[in-house]
């Protein structure tokens, strides 16, 4: 399964899609109301099939509801059902049942097999109207679902999920596919101080886009909260704020692409720890969202695949920070605040991040069967 995202051309016609999203929001809220009422009356959960049948009947008499395809309506019911099942299963862990949503903020609708048609080129027919999108890449494979999404700025995106056929053969990550160009292998450690520390000793600092733009955002958000609720000015201020946020994430993404290309130019094999984002968040707090490691890895994976480079992820439980990269001695504990430490066994002084990246490189290359590679300059023969 692959998810492709395309931006739709701005066009007056897009208002029909927006109307469909609004109608979906209205139907969604109606379903929630029905769920609540049913539970109050009968003390039990309304079955999904029953709800779907009821909504389908109502839809026949309501032209506004008919703007949304019948499949999208079914999808709404199924989504609510899923949310309820999640709630039944995990309510003790604090999961809440699905609730009402503001129609203005309702984001999307999803079609499965019917209600749309790709007309070739960059044209797609949704309902009975034709829309154009920025075709940034080919849509290969069988289309599973098509979702139209509305951003807070009112722009529309089309998200297509395809069942990608494995025809290229690169997918399996088989080791022989790696093109040996540089003959270099490196380990990387993500960190708070430096974004990435490479096993060759270089540190790549995060540009901290968020921090730079924090002032602009604080100002925009103050402007927003000062404006009268429901006023045009407030909506303008909201859009301004959203734009500021998007600006940051765009700049960050650009930087990620550039970095991904630099690293894959320099190395053939890149080793990382498998990210445990939840754990990192607990450990480091919310600053991690600014660093966005996960997003970077996705981009890097894509670039690496294009260039026939190999990414190796090592076991997240491997104690990369606590192990001495010189002698293999493992510390009992290592506080997050300690940046350098002396190994009690071999007396070598270890920089926390660099030491970790060396370990990651060593473990990563051992999984390749390359043996104990210490230097990133060591040639590899995969
Ligand atoms: Zn040691």
Summarize the structure.
With 382 residues, this protein is an alpha+beta fold. The chain folds into two domains: 162 residues, no CATH class; 149 residues, Nucleotidyltransferase, domain 5 (2-Layer Sandwich), CATH 3.30.420. The protein has ten helices and 14 strands.
Biggest sheet character: 5 strands, mixed
First-residue to last-residue Cα separation: 29 Å
Strand and helix order: EHHHHEEEEEEEEEHHEHHHEEEH
Task: State which percent range the strand residues make up.
Answer: 15-25%
Count the beta strands. Answer: 14
How would you state the average pLDDT, rounded? 85
- As a percent range, the share of helical residues equals 40-55%
Tell me the strand order in the biggest sheet.
Answer: 10-9-8-11-12
Ligand species: zinc ion
CA-based shape? elongated
Rg, Cα atoms, Å: 26 Å
Give the helix/strand class.
alpha+beta
Poorly predicted regions? 167-176, 371-382
How many separate helices? 10
Total domains? 2
Task: Describe how the helices and strands are arranged.
Elements: E1 2-7, H1 14-42, H2 48-60, H3 63-66, H4 70-90, E2 108-111, E3 116-118, E4 123-126, E5 129-132, E6 142-150, E7 156-163, E8 185-190, E9 196-198, E10 203-204, H5 209-226, H6 232-266, E11 269-273, H7 277-284, H8 288-291, H9 293-306, E12 310-314, E13 340-342, E14 349-351, H10 352-367
Parallel strand pairs: 8-11, 11-12
Antiparallel strand pairs: 1-7, 2-6, 3-4, 4-5, 6-7, 8-9, 9-10, 13-14
Helix pairs in contact: 1-4, 2-4, 5-6, 6-9
The structure holds zinc ion.
Zinc ion binds at residues 324, 326-327, 329, 343, 345-346, 348.
């Amino acid at each position: 399964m692959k998810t492709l995202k395309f931006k739709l051309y701005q066009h007056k016609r897009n208002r029909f899609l927006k109307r469909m999203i609004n109608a979906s929001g209205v139907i969604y809220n109606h379903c929630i109301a029905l769920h609540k009422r049913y539970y109050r009356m009968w003390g039990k959960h309304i079955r999904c099939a029953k709800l779907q049948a009821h909504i389908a009947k109502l839809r026949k008499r309501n032209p506004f509801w008919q703007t949304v395809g019948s499949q999208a309506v079914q999808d709404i019911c199924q989504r609510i059902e899923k949310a309820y099942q999640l709630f039944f299963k995990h309510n003790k862990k604090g999961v809440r049942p699905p609730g009402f949503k503001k129609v203005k903020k309702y984001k999307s609708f999803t079609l499965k097999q019917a209600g749309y048609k790709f007309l070739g080129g960059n044209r797609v027919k949704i309902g009975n109207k034709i829309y154009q999108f920025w075709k940034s890449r080919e849509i290969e494979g069988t289309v599973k679902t098509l979702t139209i999404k509305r951003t807070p700025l009112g722009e529309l995106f089309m998200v297509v999920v395809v069942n990608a056929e494995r025809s290229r053969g690169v997918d399996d990550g088989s080791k022989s596919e790696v093109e040996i160009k540089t003959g270099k292998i490196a380990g990387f450690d993500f960190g708070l101080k430096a974004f990435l520390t490479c096993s060759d000793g270089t540190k790549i600092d995060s540009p901290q886009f968020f921090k730079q733009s924090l002032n602009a955002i604080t100002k925009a958000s103050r402007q927003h909260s000062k404006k009268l609720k429901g006023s045009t000015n407030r909506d303008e201020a909201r859009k301004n704020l959203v734009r500021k946020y998007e600006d940051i994430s765009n700049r960050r993404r650009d930087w990620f692409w550039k970095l991904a290309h630099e690293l894959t130019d320099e190395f053939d094999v890149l080793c990382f720890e498998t990210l445990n984002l939840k754990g990192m968040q607990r450990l480091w707090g919310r600053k991690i969202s600014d660093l966005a490691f996960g997003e970077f890895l996705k981009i890097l994976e894509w670039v690496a695949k294009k260039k026939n480079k190999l990414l190796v992820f090592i076991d997240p439980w491997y104690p990369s920070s606590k192990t001495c990269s010189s002698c293999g001695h493992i510390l009992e504990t290592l506080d997050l605040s300690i940046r350098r430490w002396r190994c009690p066994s071999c007396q070598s002084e270890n920089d926390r991040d660099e030491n970790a990246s060396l370990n990651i490189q060593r473990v990563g290359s051992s999984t390749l069967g390359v043996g104990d590679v210490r230097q990133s300059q060591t040639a590899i023969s995969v």
